[in-house]
Amino acid sequence: MRCGYPQPVDNGIVWPRGEGTYGQQANYSCDRGYTLTGEGTINCTHTGQWSHPAPICTVTRCGRPQPVDNGIVWPRGEGTYGQQANYSCDRGYTLTGEGTVYCTHTGHWSHPAPNCTAAGHCGEPPTLENGIHTGDDYNFGKWVHYRCNEGYELIGSSRILCMNEGWTRLNTRCRITLCDPPQPVDNGTVRPRGEGTYGQQANYSCDRGYTLTGEGTVYCTHTGHWSHPAPICTVTRCGRPQPVDNGIVWPRGEGTYGQQANYSCDRGYTLTGEGTVYCTHTGHWSHPAPNCTAAGHCGEPPTLENGIHTGDDYNFGKWVHYRCNEGYELIGSSRILCMNEGWTRLNTRCRITLCDPPQPVDNGTVRPRGEGTYGQQANYSCDRGYTLTGEGTVYCTHTGHWSHPAPICTVTRCGRPQPVDNGIVWPRGEGTYGQQANYSCDRGYTLTGEGTVYCTHTGHWSHPAPNCTAGHCGEPPTLENGIHTGDDYTFGKWVHYDCNEGYELIGSSRILCMNEGWTRLTCQCRITLCDPPQPVDNGIVRPRGEGTYGQQADYSCDRGYTLTGEGTVNCTHTGHWSHPAPNCTESIVEQSGRQTNPTAGHYAIIGGAIALVALGALVIALCVGVHVCRNRGSYPVGTGSKDGEERSICEDGSVTPPPETYISPLLTTK
Q: Which of these, 143, 358, 370, 630, is most buried using a 10 Å CB contact count?
């Protein structure tokens, strides 16, 4: 089947250009600066048409060139491949960079936008794509020289000058070195055929029946020449055909590709084998030389690839029949006849048996999907969640049919979910892939395990059935500064709470074990508070505010007063202070003459003071000068004391009188 010539394409090429035969492909490519839209490779189909219409080569576009501050660019619109845009600076500004940019085949401008800088020092000279500049003096009147990298040639001036307005225009570019199209070769082809660019390679190949001599791959060098001359395709030679006994071959000389040589037998001899042989592209004749045997017997009949022949009488007028091996079908005549010249021509071949594409399957796939050949297998598989029923692998048989019908993919089923004691599951019926079943427990029972299970693609539920166990709430919550009593933590049982000593319970004192767990613990242990400690006349207490459990308060008396009772009290767990408030009583010191043995129940005038003697030695003295013994030190006795006079001594709460002074025992009593 032939398809005609593939359609040409503007601004591009198609190869090969000739008529196509079934299965042959043609490849399109666009010229530099053009982009291919459509199918780049088309195939000659069995209908005699190419598989796709010719593509289109559209010119490459670059978008608008970038604007420049203190300057302009013209033209401002979108550019197409090869188009240039020119930059210029306003008066007093110098252009730094490329003043002319080109729309390249990549769809980008050849250079970034230049800069317009204030005149004076020209700054960094513009870069040259694929080139370099020499010189580092960028001041007025200085030249910078450019040269191109290897493989590129300089087009335009090789230097620019620093002027007052900046660098003169860089009218230079480095064009990639081009090589002329590679030389064609007789009886062969070269790809690609057009001009080459530096580094590009071209590949030579010879037509069938020709042999390449020389370099098959050449490269475009920086000199603009290909690395090697074109090779030569010389016709393949086969040498002389083998001679035959009792016969001749013509022509007898060396053969070249495609040439034929004909064998014939002398009279009375019959040719066995191929009478015509061809010089092939491998340099060998297509068949060995035949034999010339005495007439009347044709000899062994020709073999049939993938087939056999029946019959063992190879004499004149006898038929030999052919049949194909299993899995192959015979195309052409099934027999040959022994003639005087030998066997008639075997116009028969064995073609492998074909099976139509395997039947598709719902909710599954089959691989491969196309036609099958004898012995080939096709494999079915089901989508996830579906189970294959039937044969998963089928074979193309010698009958041209698959060994089994297509299987079926049925949704996977999981059976009924397991029941649970003291609970229910819903739904109760069989499940299908992806379906869920939900478990719940009766009142007073707690679910342990997964409450929701899913039917998986394996046909099993995702988890085993859970358990419903009698409600057990576990360890009850702790109460800060408190404890709980009771060790039965099952459904319907109470746990009671008490606070530690020094704390009082606020809120409910118990919680209940329910199906969902313990009821909320709403109580707390608040530290016990004591009212502010009682004040004391003629003294102070610190601190004065409310007290908390364990806190202490300290009493002290004013100057001239003595503390009677506990000076430190503590706040107890009952909310009361550990002792009542003490008293602060007035301290008295008397001055007297030496009085050694006053009599009980009598007053005595001692040094101008009145003393009452009572209960033996207990004396309360009213002195003219009174001082309370509080701190260690010495105190004057009388109101008229002067420096040098005798003083009382205070130590550890007791007063030691000076000579002639009497101290009542009451003052040292605590």
A: 358
Task: Assess if residue 278 is contained within a domain.
Answer: no
Residue 464 and residue 510 share a domain: no
Where does a domain end: 176, 192, 209?
176
Q: Which pLDDT band holds residue 625 (cuts at 50, 70, 90)? A: very low
Per DSSP, the residues of 230-285 read --EEEEPEEEPPPP-TTEEEES-S-EETT-EEEEEEPTTEEEES-SEEEB-TTSSB
Same domain, 535 and 498: no
Q: Is 323 inside any structural domain?
A: no
Query: Residues 514, 534: one domain?
Result: no
- Rounded Cα–Cα distance for residues 80 and 426 (Å): 71
Question: Residue 155: inside a domain, yes or no?
Answer: yes
Instruction: Based on the fold, state whether residues 83 and 28 are members of the same structural domain.
Output: no
User: Phi, psi at residue 516, to the nearest 5°?
Assistant: -90, -5
**Beta sheet of 364-367, edge-to-edge order:** 364-367, 377-382, 393-395
Q: Is the pLDDT of residue 258 over 80?
A: yes
Question: For residue 359, what is the DSSP state?
Answer: P
Query: Kind of pairing, strands 255-256 and 269-272?
Result: unpaired
Same domain, 399 and 506: no
Among the ranges given (13-17, 52-56, 65-69, 316-320), the one the predictor scored with the smallest mean pLDDT: 316-320
The dihedral sign for the CA sequence 487, 488, 491, 496: negative
Rounded Cα distance, 623 and 615, in Å = 20
| 481 to 174, 507, 536: CA distances (angstroms) | 90, 14, 34
For the four alpha carbons of 477, 481, 487 and 488, in that order, the dihedral sign comes to: negative
Long-range contacts of 481-490 (CB under 8 A, 24+ apart): 481/525, 481/527, 482/523, 482/525, 489/513
In which domain, by residue range, is 432 found?
A: 413-470
What CATH number is attached to the domain comprising 533?
Answer: 2.10.70.10
Phi–psi pair at 504, nearest 5 degrees: -120, 145
Please write the tens of the pLDDT for every residue from 218-235: 999 999 999 999 999 999
Whether the CB-CB separation of 308 and 323 falls below 8 Å is answered with yes
Q: Return the pLDDT at 517.
A: 84
pLDDT of residue 89: 86
- Whether residues 579 and 619 share a domain: the answer is no
Q: In whole angstroms, give the CA distance from residue 649 to residue 589.
A: 11
Chain centroid offset of residue 287 CA: 63
My answer on whether 536 and 557 are in the same domain is: yes
For residues 503 and 510, give the distance between their C-alpha atoms in angstroms, rounded to a whole number. Answer: 17
Q: Are residues 87 and 158 in the same domain?
A: yes
**Tally of structural domains, the chain:** 8
**198 found inside a domain:** yes
Burial class from Cβ neighbours inside 10 Å (0-12, 13-18, 19+) for residue 485 reads exposed
Q: pLDDT value at position 446?
A: 81
